[in-house]
Structures
1.
Amino acid sequence: MAKRYETVIGLEVHVELATATKIFCGCSAKFGGAPNTHTCPVCTGMPGSLPVLNRQVVDYALALGMAANCRINQTCKFDRKNYFYPDNPQNYQISQLYLPICHDGFLEIRTASGKKKIRIHEMHMEEDAGKLIHDEWEDCSLVDYNRSGVPLVEIVSEPDMRNAEEVIAYLEKLRLICQYLGVSDCKLQEGSMRADVNLSVMEAGSGKLGTRTEMKNLNSFKAIARAIEGERERQIELLEEGKCVQQETRRWDDNKEISYAMRSKEDAKDYRYFPDPDLPPVVISGEWLARIKERQPELQEEKAERYEKDFGLSAYDASLLTQSRHLADLYEQTVSLLQQKEVAGAPKKAANWFIGETLRLLKDRGMETEDLHFTPGHLADLIVVCERGEVNNQTAKKVFGRIFDEDVEPVSYIEKNGLKTVVDTGVLESIVEKILASNPKTVEEYQSGKTKVLGFLVGQVMKEMKGKADPQTVNRLLMEKLQRGPSL
């Protein structure tokens, strides 16, 4: 009988904080910039330079720790993690080992199997390293220290995850919390959220953990899922062959869908941690904690519940609208404006435009919700115009496309481009008669019982009117004339 194996997964997630400046100096922490332009003696490790802690980093770490149900160490310290690598200018990294700022938290995730708590061992503050750029043409490596000293919070989970679905659910939950708090944009493609996967396999039911490996270079959720499956299969294959899994750090190549060994996995003792002599302990008062707690925003799950309760939305619609804080903010502003204009059913009408057209256009344009830049007032005005019957739904969607792309003011745009719905029944009647006269076979089919052809006739009238007719009025006029009999 073939052995059954269980996968055990823990994550080390690095979140780059959205501060204006770096953790220990005043250099810009903004992504990009010409190489080595966001640098100073502190973040390039010059002798005699001294670090000064950025208070905003502590605020962000506290907010994230509270949102993840962590306990707070009101006295925490920084340590030096010693290692040599070309992108590490000091030959050590300032981090937290002995007294991290947060510990013993959890996030609750939801998968097809139901709800599950993923425990968080700790969160600690640290500085990022620089970036090596390998030039294959010149056969050399260049270093950019712009990222050196950018503030990070590292979130270390317990090995509570058992498959890729749970891992992705955990990461998505963590990313949403960070974005709602405003502590990070969590863009994996820019490296502002990075996950290292610690994975081992063991015989199902044995309870004896296997040897773990750590996988790096994972810059998308899809890559993480593929890497988990690939490493699981690799380890099982080794065990089936009677070989041992080596504790090591591996690099995932997503193009080839394979991993390869980078180095043996280090333990804390290998880094010779000791307290940083240049940084005093961080003492967090009760008043400081109270200020952070008071500023905590409504998070995604709370917001979705409120949308269901106050706006009467379905759980599905509420989850879509709250998938991004920016999207939710735009939606709420639109609802508020519609309510001020006394539009009946404002929350549902606004939701239809965001879930239908906005998300469709985001997908078509390959954009993220954070890229939305249209004015909520313009969408609200378009909805009002639709409610008055001044434009039909087809035209409104075209106008919204211009609002989405260029943030045009809809009322003047509709007027300028002659897009108002034609409500003159005299004009519409003459067009209807013209279409009926041009399509005698279709008229005959309708009058013989094939009523589905009415849609074709409506389409012909709309085409003749360049989409500016009211479909309901066109339907009514066509049916009135068709029901008069062969002579029309």
Note: The chain is about 40% helix and 20% strand.
2.
Amino acid sequence: MNKKEIRTLNSEIEIRSSSDDESQKIVGYALRFDSKSEDLGGFVEVIKRDALNNADMSDVRALVNHDADKVLGRSTSGTLKLEVDDFGLKYIIDPPNTSYARDLIESMKRGDINQSSFAFIIDYENDGEEWDYNDDRDVYVRTIKRFKKISDVSVVTYPAYAATESVVSKRGLDDYKNELHNKLKQKQIAIELELI
């Protein structure tokens, strides 16, 4: 399963200017560790602190709204720097002198755009996720333990939970529910066989 998923983080993004030149940097966090997401359609998500260990981040793009036609930076060119720290995955973008980058920076300065997002693939081969049910909150909890790949970080206008992108996670929740149902059936069959 190499299905790409997208998540949005509600955290401030900054424009930082250097005093020696007129260049501006876009700085933010694409993801935060050990904090619960909002409801993602029947479940919440938590990213473990070591989920990025061994993740492929060799060629990550910085985009506007996950639009591949609006590239702000790229890790291989040095215009996107990624740092894993105690809080999560921090990014620093050296944006190009293009009309869409200048427009984005103006919208960010006004406070119209202030969220981050990232696109990823879970490492399913190495138990990259775990599902649990929280009885107290009546919600499923997906814990991401390992990412296989981070493909982009994006500055976004609003949360990018479009139906086609959230279907992947919904499918994971449905798989977990089916697995629980099958285990319950197996236990019921085992109990019935013992009674015979």
Note: Residues 5-195 form one domain.
3.
Amino acid sequence: MFLQRIHHIAIICSDYERSKNFYVHVLGLSIIKETFRAERNSFKLDLAVAANYQIELFSFPDPPVRVNNPEAQGLRHLAFAVKDLDACVRHLTQHQVVCEPVRIDTITNKRFTFFSDPDGLPLELYEE
């Protein structure tokens, strides 16, 4: 197969500063590079997820609202692997992020929970 790995995940936000704060200060991702593209009136923020992955956070003037039905076609959610799910949930709760009750994956017997970013994008924490 010619695909080697996922290069990046792109997210368009409605409020750049709010989402930047969420991904950097609440989730703890580190900034690789921040670029303002004047011709598009748009920011592009490259964020590191550990050493192997990258999220690109974009702002655009008046982006359309995302379909929020969890079973809609397209990307369903973005999942992050964590070592201590309980500690992560406590951290998110301290930042006023609401997490769903922790569940058990019936196939792997691993624990997981869902929460949302500031624009309602569903995110998952999956305990390894």
Note: Strands lie at 9-13, 30-37, 42-49, 53-59, 78-82, 103-104, 111-116, 122-127.
4.
Amino acid sequence: MSLEVEGLTIEIQGRRVVDGVSFTVPDGARVGLIGESGSGKSLTALAVLGLLPDGASASGSIRWNGRELIGLSDRELARLRGDEIGIVFQEPRTALNPIRTVGRQIAESVRIHEKASKRDAAARAVAEASRVALPDPERIVSRYPHQLSGGQRQRVAIAMALACRPRLLIADEPTTALDVTIQADILRLLLTLVRDDGMSLVFITHDLAVLSQIATHGVVLEDGRVVEDAPVSTLLTAPSSPVTRGLLRDATATLWRPGPGAPGPVGGDPVGGAA
């Protein structure tokens, strides 16, 4: 299955915030949307699942496996969310329900999309918690979000997004709120799961160093427009846009460092080995 975005325009109360964005995500590809805050990358991703904020409207075309998504009812889009397309948000503390156990939240999409019994869905929640390397999954599924660390909450969010084995995962800056060590662990986990399931990935970030770890192709946005669309190796070594050159200068480079022996996207996968 492939995602095709063509001429996407988003307006909020008459103000154009995304202007004619086009890109494709072929089956199994890992594509990054990168840009500074306010560039339109998160709004572009939210438009795919019909999750734009109140007052926002989208035009143009978003096709998933040939099916036009713009104009679908919320009920029709709800059938896709979590089933064919999963999403992981930047801050799991706000994405997770504070008054439900994490196990119940992981199990919810299984019950909705796979019509699983409560007992079977609970067992799946434990299995999914184990799959994302949460410690002592039988115990942790009975806990509430506030009882977990930031990295554990993000693993729960990933388990929720992938429980029904979607064909496309959208990850909206999922490591920004984490420290560098946990950030690297989450990136390796995501890459491993994407590979194992043969999923496509849209990864949103403002950090080119992070992008180099997870994606093989990058779409650079500025003020709601695409300014560069190229392999990540090209963005790192021969950027054509002043925006991309600025992102390269500003890259934290804590996870990717140029030089002999350094991991990087040139000639192979961004992250070397599964975690």
Note: The two ends are 26 Å apart (CA to CA).
